[in-house]
Amino acid sequence: MQVTSLFPFHKLPYQVWLMMVKRRMFPLLIASALAVMVYIIFTLSRSQPGNHQHLYPRHISDQSITPVNDTKHFMVGAYKEHRVTGCSVRIISIFRRDSVQPLYCVFYCGTHWANGTKAEVQMHSDHFGFPFVTTDVLCPNLPDCNPSHVTLATQADAKLAQNQSFLRIQNLVKMEEEEFQFNFTVCWSNLFGDYNNVLQVTQTLEMYKLLGVQHVVVYNTSCGPDLERLLQSYTQEGFVEVVPWPIDQHMNPSRGWQPIEHGGDIHYYGQLTTLNDCVYRHMYQSRYVLLNDIDEIITPYQHQTLPQMMDVLQRQHPKAEVFLIENHIFPKSQFEPSGKFERPRWRDVPGINIMEHIYREEPDYRIYHPSKMIVRPRAVEQTSVHSVLRNFGQTVKVPPNVCHIIHVRVPLRRGLTKKELHEDKRVWDYERQLVPNVDKALEQAGLLI
Ligand SMILES: *[C@@H]1O[C@H](CO)[C@@H](O)[C@H](O)[C@H]1NC(C)=O
Ligand SMILES: *[C@@H]1O[C@H](CO)[C@@H](O)[C@H](O)[C@H]1NC(C)=O
Ligand SMILES: *[C@@H]1O[C@H](CO)[C@@H](O)[C@H](O)[C@H]1NC(C)=O
Ligand SMILES: *[C@@H]1O[C@H](CO)[C@@H](O)[C@H](O)[C@H]1NC(C)=O
Ligand SMILES: *[C@@H]1O[C@H](CO)[C@@H](O)[C@H](O)[C@H]1NC(C)=O
User: Fold this and answer.
1) Which residues cross the membrane (predicted)?
2) Alpha carbons within 13 A on the beta-carbon side of 76
């Protein structure tokens, strides 16, 4: 296999090919293409039947949840780790806590196999008592291996593991911020049941567009029929990315956060795993990632947009990497009296009209008051819902008068009257663009008659 070290062109990431095209480096481009052809012919000529070492993993998983053979665990995503010394690849996984056994990372190194090396299993601290927990598997560095695919096996021999499902390793190239595709990405934790809150989701997506977000990701187990149409329309447009999340095909996911009350195998349909996977997927794609729920809008109150706000916050706190944003609840049971946004066009669209609910609960600061987050994903190692578990940088609590979450839902502090709530019409400030944009999005999805 010495030939391959002379021609490493077949391992070039696609970005390099793109760059060659963009910069019109045609001689180099042709030479690289020729080298790849020589490589392919060379490898094909070697793969006679009877040669038991396959030249490439035979099964590459295209699922977002892949069982680990001979165990009760699951792999979700494999990511090259550029920040932790001694660790080459991190596999975001779901482990059954009572069944942990020694595991090996078996690499396919682009041109050859490497026998497995002992994996370091890091179960996250927040499992809420459920049998399954989000887990990071750290695969050690291996000399002479530039891994492209990885799997977990119960034994170290690569030959025996060759027929297992391998994951493609993502984040192979450590991109610089200037090259990122997005500045602001929203990660919504998972969608399940027959959730069909179309109007609130449309208003939320259009608010996020006006606030300067470029990309919204949602992990989907299931949803209602109208929301399905809406998400398909936004996916076609390119603003929303839906990641399939068939967790219910592998275990009995819980609809809540307490095993005693809600039963099931894993907290909230595996919400913690999807948030971690989303952070790693966007580590070298998005400058900031917003971690919140589908019915929450992280809204700036002193700036028009999130980029403007983050510029200022980042200048005030140059070392900050995690920004905690207070959650504020706007009860859906309180309506503003003028009825100016009770629009006939929206009457038959299922879901909450957030523009009618402009009264905000004062948080009860004596009890635990949860926040959600804006993070620089490159600084995050492990995240939970309301805080990060392990990270490299500093954490800043953003004052609520600078930014808080608009969360229209059932009241948290029941029995409060309008007088005891704060009027908060921030969404109305965006009315002139928001209302026609919501109409247009609903029309595009075929949800307005
Ligand atoms: C991998 O392990 C097997 C079994 O222990 C051994 O026979 C083989 O030589 C090893 N391969 C390499 C490349 O080290
Ligand atoms: C892998 O699959 C091939 C083709 O089915 C088979 O010949 C080979 O024995 C299998 N290897 C192992 C280790 O199971
Ligand atoms: C997975 O494990 C089962 C049970 O031990 C075994 O029969 C099967 O061959 C393994 N599959 C692969 C692809 O290694
Ligand atoms: C991200 O922000 C920078 C300046 O802060 C800007 O130059 C760049 O165009 C923005 N990227 C996107 C995708 O909007
Ligand atoms: C969400 O997942 C369900 C179940 O797999 C699927 O039927 C539906 O089409 C998915 N929705 C979207 C918008 O991808």
Assistant:
1) 25-44
2) 28
CATH label, 177-444, candidates 1.20.1440, 2.60.40, 3.40.50, 3.90.550:
3.90.550
Each residue of 184-208: pLDDT tens digit?
999 998 999 999 999 999 999 999 9
Ligand 5 within 6 A of CB of 117: no
Closest ligand 1 atom to Cα of 156:
2
- Nearest atom in ligand 1 to the alpha carbon of residue 158 is 1
Q: Which long-range contacts (CB under 8 A, 24 or more apart) does 362-369 make?
A: 362/420, 362/421, 362/422, 363/326, 363/327, 363/328, 363/329, 364/413, 369/326, 369/327
Closest ligand 5 atom to 223 CA: 1
Residue 218 CA to ligand 3 centre (angstroms): 33
Q: How far is the CA of 81 from the centre of ligand 4 (A)?
A: 25
Minimal CA–CA distance to 4: which of 30, 33, 42? 42
Report pLDDT digits (tens) over 125-147.
Answer: 999 999 999 999 999 999 999 99
Worst-scoring range by mean pLDDT, 30-34, 244-248, 426-430? 30-34
Closest protein CA for atom 1 of ligand 4: 183
Q: CA angle, 266 as apex, 265 and 270 as ends, to 5°? A: 145
Ligand 4 binding pocket mutation candidate from 176, 183, 311, 314 (most atoms within 8 A of CB): 183
pLDDT interval class at 252 (50, 70, 90): very high
Which residues contact ligand 2 via a Cβ below 6 A?
160, 163
Q: Is 222 in the pocket of ligand 5 (CB under 6 A)?
A: yes
**Structure token pair of residue 194:** 């027959």
Residue with tokens 């809540």: 256
Encode pLDDT of 391-446 as tens digits: 888 999 999 999 999 999 999 988 888 899 999 999 999 999 999 999 999 999 99
